[in-house]
Design a protein that fits this description.
single chain; 44% helix
Length: 245
């Protein structure tokens, strides 16, 4: 994956991504709703639904942001515990407020962390979710491997991520929207002019589809699959950790 970073600075990608999300945290949920026309909620519901047959009780939500994926998981799965980790303290602060308001703070907790250096023992979680986070990993394979390590044998990883539409007219329409409309709307409502230009750039650089499934396999996941959403604008990726592992 070619290196795409939010800012043209000498700091690493991880530090730049954390800085970017700290900047845009106050407007993140609003812009997420606006720029996706609310479709992201349906994508998230479909992603969590993949875990219903597994009935996981202890979950990890990586790149949790403001906690929307974790909140949806509580609704559908009724777990005992969900730990959300993120490198942006600003995003997690808003997530903690949101979770407390919904009276879910006894189930959902937040911890600083990233997938490359997860502060948990191996085989700790029944399931792991990542919503729109893997393309921001500084080292993709290392991040996927980190999640594999803390997943229990028999557990499942569910990744929801943007992908690149391949067919006319969605391919051309999405390219125009992401190149011109999205950055303009981001600049209008966010103080960080660079953040919403980085988003489509990171999508273009991300090895989606079969390439990402190959990365999952390389890191040990089996039964990997992909479900394209909304004509390929996003995809749900799933993989299992074999019981023998």
């Amino acid at each position: 994956m070619s290196e795409v970073t939010p800012y043209n600075t000498t700091t690493g990608k991880k530090e730049q991504v954390a800085e970017m999300f700290d900047h845009i945290a106050p407007k993140y949920d609003f812009l997420n709703q606006l720029l996706s026309f609310g479709i992201h909620k349906g994508w998230r519901r479909k992603s969590v639904k993949k875990l219903v047959p597994l009935k996981p009780k202890v979950l990890l939500d990586v790149a949790t942001g403001t906690g929307d994926f974790a909140i949806e998981a509580v609704k559908q799965l009724s777990p005992d515990k969900i730990v959300g980790v993120d490198i942006s303290e600003g995003m997690m602060k808003l997530g903690k407020e949101k979770v407390k308001e919904k009276k879910l703070d006894s189930i959902i907790t937040f911890e600083y962390g990233d997938s490359e250096n997860l502060p948990f023992p191996e085989n700790s979680f029944d399931a792991i979710t990542v919503g729109f986070g893997v393309r921001n990993f500084a080292h993709l394979e290392k991040g996927i491997q980190g999640m594999f390590n803390v997943l229990r044998p028999g557990g499942m990883l569910v990744v929801l991520e943007f992908s690149k539409p391949r067919k006319f007219p969605m391919k051309q329409g999405y390219a125009f929207y992401s190149r011109f409309i999205m950055p303009a709307m981001g600049r209008l409502f966010s103080s960080d002019r660079r953040a919403y230009s980085y988003l489509p750039e990171s999508v273009q650089a991300f090895p989606d589809g079969e390439e990402f499934l190959a990365v999952m396999k390389k890191c040990g996941f089996s039964d990997v699959s992909r479900q394209p959403l909304t004509f390929g604008v996003a995809s749900i990726y799933t993989g299992r950790k074999n019981s023998a592992q």
